[in-house]
Specification:
The chain is an alpha+beta fold. The protein contains 14 helices and eleven strands. The strands form three sheets. Strands 6, 7, 8, 9 and 10 form a five-stranded antiparallel β-sheet that branches. Strands 1-2-4-3 form a four-stranded antiparallel β-sheet. Strands 5-11 form a two-stranded parallel sheet.
């Protein structure tokens, strides 16, 4: 066997030619036929007793194809590994590769084009100056967060007099044209629910403010909801097509008035939010905890913004790096054909950008001697689990439960890939902060959000 590799600097690719002769694969063919003979079933012969000539006649071509393909594949990837060729994607059959007649030929020539990774350098140092946004925590944000926690721990209570945001339960009755008596045979809905604060027409909502339990209020639902047929259908308990039949006045006899009351900031509230064993005893302590949580979240936002800014800089620095685009298009198109999808120019451009960033990130990991260990991936899974529960207001999840949830995430390979990338990014961020010169700028969360929106 003879293997020849020619590198093309201009196209960032190489062409690898494999000259295969009969002696290279003959033993593999014999071995395959011998294994086939043990279990081959041909009418007139017992299994394992079929003459070698018939085995070769019926299975020889298939065994030869299998042996040649296996030998070519082994030789191709062994050469790539031994010579440390940094191939992007998979080798592809060259355009100048001639068709091989495996059945009638003994010697073969296989030609492959190899898309190679471009050679370029990236590194970070103290000479690189990058803005770092320190996000201040405003008292209003602490107030808002405290009110959110109070709402989460609040409850509905029955009251006698209605206010704007109360929930009313009662009987809805259709009135005659004069609006002074129930319409004979008209629509009646018992245990109907109204929340006037959500009326589109605020004048209609005012009729319920100050109303007492057992009062009867007259209003026009069609005006109240101003043509929101889906809500009217739900109120009347009819189909949307029938809503137009009930365009007039209705009465609403109030059976009960329910008001949501936020929790008082007291010991019961502290336990409900922070757990039975909490040491929080005052509103000042709660505010300090809230401020600490917001600061921690903002620090993560600042770190990620730094990461994106460094990424942007390095992507700009390497914008002129040339990739074997024609070959990569072949590789990606072939992959998309298997998925029965078309490769658009936009998709290819995006894939190329992702590839360049992946190479940059690998080089940074090498510069910083960063490696992602199993423990890092597990820690990322637990962090993701904690964040997911926090989104639902669950801040005191036991470690054991988080551990079990994280383990279930680690069984999903797609999730694992994402966790690995997250862990790598977190390690790189820490190294970036220690390496580049940070130009600190203090901003509010609102100013920080506007910076992101502007980009």
């Amino acid at each position: 066997m003879e293997i020849k590799f020619i590198k093309n600097e201009a196209t960032v690719s190489g062409q690898l030619t494999i000259n295969l002769v009969k002696a290279d694969y003959e033993d593999l063919v014999k071995k395959t036929l011998k294994e086939t003979a043990k279990k081959a079933s041909i009418p007139g012969f017992r299994p394992g007793k079929v003459p070698a000539s018939l085995i070769k006649k019926f299975y020889g071509t298939h065994a030869k194809i299998e042996a040649v393909n296996k030998k070519v594949e082994e030789s191709l990837f062994t050469y790539i590994d031994d010579n440390k060729l940094n191939v992007l994607g998979q080798p592809v059959a060259a355009d100048n590769h001639e068709a091989q007649d495996i059945e009638h030929q003994d010697d073969f020539i296989f030609v492959f084009d190899l898309p190679l990774a471009p050679e370029f350098e990236v590194s970070l140092s103290a000479d690189d100056k990058v803005a770092y946004y320190d996000i201040s925590v405003e008292e209003k944000e602490v107030d808002d967060r405290l009110n959110e926690l109070r709402s989460r721990a609040g409850e509905n209570v029955e009251v006698e007099v209605s206010e704007e945001r109360d929930l009313l339960r009662g009987t809805l009755s259709q009135l005659n044209e004069e609006g002074n008596a129930p319409l004979e045979g008209g629509l009646v809905v018992e245990s109907s629910l109204l929340m006037p604060a959500y009326f589109a027409n605020k004048d209609e909502a005012k009729a319920f403010v100050g109303a007492h339990k057992n009062d009867v209020v007259t209003f026009n639902p069609s005006k109240a909801y101003e043509g929101r047929d889906a809500e009217l259908a739900g109120l009347f308990k009819v189909s949307k097509d029938e809503v137009a039949n009930y365009a007039g006045l209705f009465s609403f006899q109030i059976d009960s008035i329910s008001r949501f009351v936020p929790a008082e900031v007291n010991e019961e509230f502290f336990k409900k939010i922070y757990g039975e064993d909490t040491e929080v005893k005052s509103e000042e302590q709660v505010r300090e905890l809230i401020k600490g949580d917001l600061s921690k979240a903002y620090a993560a936002d600042s770190d990620y913004r730094l990461f994106l800014d460094v990424k942007k800089k390095l992507m700009q620095d390497t914008a002129a790096v040339k990739f074997p685009e024609d070959l990569l298009k072949k590789v990606l198109k072939h992959a998309n054909e298997e998925k029965k999808e078309e490769l658009t120019d936009e998709q290819f451009t995006q894939a190329l950008e992702e590839l360049r960033w992946d190479m940059i990130r690998t080089k940074l990991a090498s510069q910083f001697e960063v490696k992602v260990e199993d423990a890092d991936v597990k820690a990322s899974a637990i962090e993701a689990a904690r964040y997911q529960f926090a989104q639902y207001g669950m801040n005191n999840i036991p470690d054991e439960y988080l551990e079990n949830f994280a383990q279930s995430m680690l069984k999903d390979q797609n999730r694992v890939n994402g966790l690995v990338q997250h862990a790598l990014n977190q390690k790189l961020i820490a190294k970036m902060k220690d390496t580049v010169t940070l130009e600190h700028k203090t901003v509010t969360s609102e100013e920080f959000a506007k910076l992101s929106e502007a980009e």
